[in-house]
Amino acid sequence: MFITIDGPDGTGKTTLAHALAERLQAQGIPAVYTCEPTDSELGQHIREILRKGGYELSRLTELFTEDRARHIRDFIEPHSRQGEVVICDRYKYSTICYQHLQGEPVERLLRLNGGFLPPDLPVILYAEDAGLLLERIGRRGLGTDLFESKKTIEESIRLYRKMPEYFPREQFFYLDATLPREKAVSLLLEEVLKRLQQ
Distance between CA 7 and CA 76 in Å, rounded? Predict the structure, then answer.
């Protein structure tokens, strides 16, 4: 099973992804955590660009696409074939959202990402209050990248709600990021177990 967790910055994607992997493992279900951009040399290069900015937009989009293609080939598909639940922190939905906010046409982004492996469970975390998400980002104490501003977060919330329009065949699961952590993990675990049984 392939699970992706996306959503605006500050919604707790990484925390939730790790917690879900731990809960599945505790139930005897093999699960692995991964993320995008990946930890590969290319992924680290992308992260550096996001911190510093100043890179040609269409080329950055292509780098995301290249990193994702390698990730699917070298990690996601092999682990899935072994019967493991693969939990990916960010996927194509984040690329479409944030690259569009930077000026890339949605049509090009969908063309470049539309053929990638569809998740069995694409999770979108959401929150109506962009200010709350910005406060969470500030508390991390890690600095911000070029995507982390209140206006950008507000626009990203709107775009993430449009993902079912862009991918009508994919069964999205929207989860309120303002729920207490244990409640959010329990709701997501319940949904994962339900889909595993289908």
Answer: 20
* Of the candidates 185, 197, 191, 146, the residue with the CA atom closest to the CA atom of residue 9: 146
192, two tokens: 């994962």
Helix axes 57-71, 92-101, angle to 10 degrees: 180
Check residue 146 and give its pLDDT.
Answer: 44
Amino acid 140: pLDDT: 58
Confidence of residue 5 (pLDDT cuts 50, 70, 90): very high
Look up tokens 């775009």; give the residue. Answer: 159
Tokens of 158: 């709107």
Q: Which runs of consecutive H residues, i.e. helices, occur in the chain?
A: 13-26, 41-52, 57-71, 77-81, 92-101, 106-113, 130-140, 150-160, 163-166, 181-196
Distance CA 87, CA 29 (A): 12
> For all residues of the chain together, what is the average pLDDT?
90
Q: Which residue has the higher pLDDT, 142 or 173?
A: 173
- Residues 18-36 as b/e (b if ≥16 CB within 10 A, e otherwise) read ebbbebbeeeebebbbbbb
How many residues does the structure list for the chain? 198
Instruction: Give the CA distances from residue 166 to residues 4, 46, 109, 140, 172, in Å, rounded to whole numbers and listed in that order.
Output: 16, 25, 10, 32, 11
* pLDDT exceeds 70 at position 142: no
Q: How far is CA 111 from CA 8, 104, 133, in A?
A: 22, 12, 30
